[in-house]
């Protein structure tokens, strides 16, 4: 593959990747939906030189880190369905109490609610 063609593919792949993450922020996609879209995008471009794959993977890590830093919050889901943020704990409860009583935990979109008014999940680990 010629260098100029490789650079064009790299730039298109990078632009598509940024579009996927921008869409994720705009619509509150789950991590699985993002992974599927990125996988489909990489399949669409077909075989690429390793240096392009490495570049795209590095860009993806930066975009994912940015999501966690600016758009997501870690919450515990309690048996009554309420969410507890470890930074703003209920009075009289320790981090360990919340962790032991919770039924699930994970990252949720900041300021986003699903159709029934609950925090919109990004990635949630069920059960203990």
Q: How are helices and strands ordered from N to C?
A: HHHEEHEE
Uncertain runs are: none
User: Could you say which overall geometry the principal axes of the C-alpha atoms support?
Assistant: elongated
Indicate the mean pLDDT: 86
By oligomeric state, this entry counts as single chain
**Roughly what percent helix?**
40-55%
Q: Based on helices, strands and strand pairing, what is the structural class?
A: alpha+beta
Q: Record the strand order, biggest sheet.
A: 2-1-3-4
Integer-rounded radius of gyration: 19 Å
Query: How many structural domains does the protein architecture include?
Result: 2
What does this entry look like structurally?
Strands 2-1-3-4 form a 4-stranded antiparallel β-sheet. The protein has 2 domains: 68 residues, no CATH class; 55 residues, no CATH class. 16% of the residues are buried. The chain has 4 helices and 4 strands; from the N terminus they run αααββαββ. Strand 3 and strand 4 form a beta hairpin.
Briefly say what this structure is:
By secondary structure, the protein is an alpha+beta fold.
Write the layout of secondary structure elements.
Layout: H1 3-27, H2 31-45, H3 50-70, E1 72-77, E2 83-85, H4 95-101, E3 104-113, E4 119-126
Antiparallel strand pairs: 1-2, 1-3, 3-4
Helix pairs in contact: 1-2, 1-3
Comma- or semicolon-separated keywords:
single chain; 128 residues; alpha+beta; 2 domains; 4 helices; 4 strands
